[in-house]
Amino acid sequence: MYSSEEILAMVNQGLDALHLERQPFGLYKPIRYVLSAGGKRIRPVLLLMTYNMYKEDVSPAMPTAVGIETYHNYTLLHDDVADDSDQRRGVPTIRSLMGPSVSVLLGDYWLVKAMELILADAEADTKVIKIFSKTLSDLAEGEMLQLQKAQSGDTDEQDYLRIIYNKTAPLFEAACVTAALSVDAPQEYMQAAKDYAVALGLAFQIVDDWLDTYGDPAVFGKSIGGDIINNKKTWLLTKAFEKSGELRGELLEAMNMPV
To answer: In a 10 Å sphere around its CB, with 0-12 CB exposed, 13-18 middle and 19+ buried, how is residue 175 labelled?
Structure first.
């Protein structure tokens, strides 16, 4: 089996090989800029490592792996608009450099490109289409729940877990389940892959919330405190509500929410 470092190198090579040096440069040059900023590439690495558990040669799964990272970047371009983000991965966002309209347009292109790559696999069928259609629906629901909660003065742990289950976990799940499906893994292994991916996705978002408040911007790659500024209901905030007691009113007032 390949190591995670070897798999990551393959993913980066696959992304570098995308044909982006073409007209209109106003579309493709910013996309190359986004990719050049790097990223953890967790989702495509998960996909290829799951695939590699069953097959030594992972090249047949490479288009889907590149596609899932492309899919992820589509969500980030739209997130940067929704969150008014100025920095991601340590560099200025497309939203801050070229405006929200360009960021949305690039995101739309990335979504179409992602599906093209994912469906390039000769083994892809309606099951794969259904997985990614559900993923898109779940992500949209998660983002809307988060936006709605940002306008309310309260939330609890169950609300929070529901948001991140829809907002973060689905793409982790899609990566592992798609790989298991493509190698005809037994149902029990497919379920195990799904359970692992969901748990990892939830853990990833909780850590990300923590880093948004306490992380080093030079390492985290984003400005610290964005979740607080945008009034996002994170795990940290649910715990603050839980423990606020008599200070609850002061906490809501500080958040500029009705007491």
So the answer is: buried
What is the C-alpha to C-alpha distance for residues 229 and 40, in angstroms, rounded to an integer?
A: 25
3-state secondary structure at position 87: strand
Side chain identity at 235, as an amino acid letter? Answer: W
Residue keyed to tokens 């990566």 = 175
Residue 36's contacts (CB-CB under 8 Å, 6 or more residues apart) are none
What is the per-residue pLDDT across 15-74, written as a single tens digit (0 to 9) for each? 988 877 777 777 778 888 888 887 889 999 999 999 999 999 999 999 999 999 998 888
How far is it, in rounded angstroms, from Cα 145 to Cα 138? Answer: 10
CA 157 to chain CA centroid, Å, is 21
Which tokens is 160 given?
A: 């929070």
Residues 6 or more apart in contact with residue 149 via CB below 8 angstroms: 155, 159, 163, 232, 233
Task: Give, rounded to a whole angstrom, the gap between the first and last alpha carbons of the chain.
Answer: 56
Say if pTM beats, i.e. exceeds, 0.70.
yes
Question: How far from the centroid of its chain's Cα atoms is residue 235's Cα?
Answer: 17
Q: Where are the alpha helices (DSSP H) in 37-153?
A: 42-52, 62-82, 94-98, 100-118, 126-150
In sequence order, the 6+-apart residues with CB closer than 8 A to the CB of 53 are 1
DSSP 92: E
Tokens representing 94? Answer: 């497309």
CA dihedral of 123, 126, 130, 132, whole degrees rounded to 10: 40
Nearest alpha carbon to residue 26 among 91, 79, 99, 89: 99
